[in-house]
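User: Please predict structures.

Assistant: First:
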Amino acid sequence: MYGRLITLLFFILLLAGCKPAAESEVTAIVGAVLIDGAGGPPISDSVVLVSGSRIRAAGPRATTPIPAGSEKIDGSEKFLVPGLIDLHVHLGARAGPRFVAADYTAERIRKNLNSYLYFGVTSVRSMGTDREAGLEVRESQRNAPPGTARLFTAGRGFTAPGGHPSQEVGDIARQPRSPAEARSQVKDLAAGRVDAIKIWVDEVGGRLPKIQPAISEAILEEARVHKIPVTAHIHSLADTMFLLDRGAAGFLHMIRDTENIDPAFIARLRNLQIVFAPTLVRQELAWLLKEQPRWLSDPEIGRAADPETVAAVKSFAASLPSPSAEAREQFERAVRNTKSLAQAGVPIGTGSDGGSAFDFPGLMLHRELEILVEAGLTPLEVIQAATRNGTLALGKMDELGVIQAGRRADLLLLRANPAEDIRNLRKIDRLMLDGQWVDRARLP
């Protein structure tokens, strides 16, 4: 009896000395200017509380009490934004002049994801070139903290037999020859629990076959049965309208064949909150690469590609013919259309096409953000595009992309104000992923 009393007293004293987990494990980021990603004005002298993997509270210091025992992080003279989201990547490649199928391994996928994370990209959506290794990496994140940039995947996407991007990556994309075959392949993707489905609808200036409308329609119908959103790589206004009429949930790249876009169609895009990730950096590459753009000498390019790949890209760029006037005009048309859609209230997302030829993971998303500012969006609008609007495309509006109670704690603490210069998003003082601080210097 006496022994039981001693044991009971021991546990009472032990419990008395323990604070509740909600209080003892809170991180408080205090004094930063908060840019929450939702589009509201920045909040000076803020407090953001993180408990576990989630944001517990966020707001002005005056109205956001800090629990006793919290770990305090001094955010004074710094700026806090959500982790960035890249809606358009291709994992498992070196981003060199040519695609090499043997590069596609789980190890390289994780290396790519670490490159994104180093540059502040905490979530990526891999669009259409993932095989088993990509699905395995994504599945491992579902069962544990991500440990690197959070991965969403469309598995293997759809194109026409011999259509884009088969000229670059071979037969990685599915190439159904009938609506029935397409439906069967959508069922296979559903069984693999993909997060999205990708369709390429682009004849590349008439040089390649384009997926047949009946097959696109079958893909969209079957995807709807399985409740999987379909995002399309597009070029023309007519294809974009056709796909939207049949239920496409989002678009990659921008309409490039015309600027004469019906205001009623733009209104539909806005009302349906269809996210366009214009991927302007890819269009810029089509005419700028020969000029050896400044990012090829970026001091941090080694975080995105190995030295051999960088050297190969520089050598290849020097050998290119002079860019055509049409390539530059298509880029400028895409920029103008992006501005028009954004001004009309169509949600713009951010995508880099990172991992495709010459397109370095993580680094190139920051060039995309610069181009969006050059197109006429404000830095705050671009931050919203790279955060909140990304969650809209991912179907994760309650999980990611905004610094708000209940969402995942993916945070960038910056040394300079991105609302003044979007390039300041690269001036990362500290990075948090899923509630854990990341040592960027030690990312493999």
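Second:
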Amino acid sequence: MKKWKCTVCGYLHTGDTPPDNCPVCYALAAKFSAAPAGEEGMTLPAYLDANIKGETWEVTHYMGMALKAQTLGLGEVAEALYRIASEEAYHGANFIHRGSKIPSIKAQIDVSSQLADELKKDMEQMLNGELGAHKGKNQAASLAKAEGHDELAGFFRIAAADESRHAEILKGLLKKHF
């Protein structure tokens, strides 16, 4: 038996061959390399961080599959996939929430997988992110339009408008409650 290390998240697998997919971050077998002798397993913070990223990946993919199912007229399939996506989002949110409450773990996980100590600071960071996302999506829409991808450009514009709306909601909540 060999040890195989996922080069994406650090997960260690023991077996004759690497797994088809990483059970932590879902990377394909090609992302595994033979682990050096004596290699330790993942730490708890590494598992937490990898699970947050993995759950995020799952949400977007389940939602994408649900949209595809809707397009194909498979309403029951779409609803089930939306429900799974919601549960995956809940998992990721709980990992962020619970991991951020333990200082020794919080100090070791990726900053993108953390919450601040104060809700106001989290909301201010998200506000800045929404404003940046609005700008970036508008730039992407212009590029997609220039390259002749009208449908994609249209959705970038819709998403940009949503980001702007999210920013306004956060501004209002910050003003009212903080």
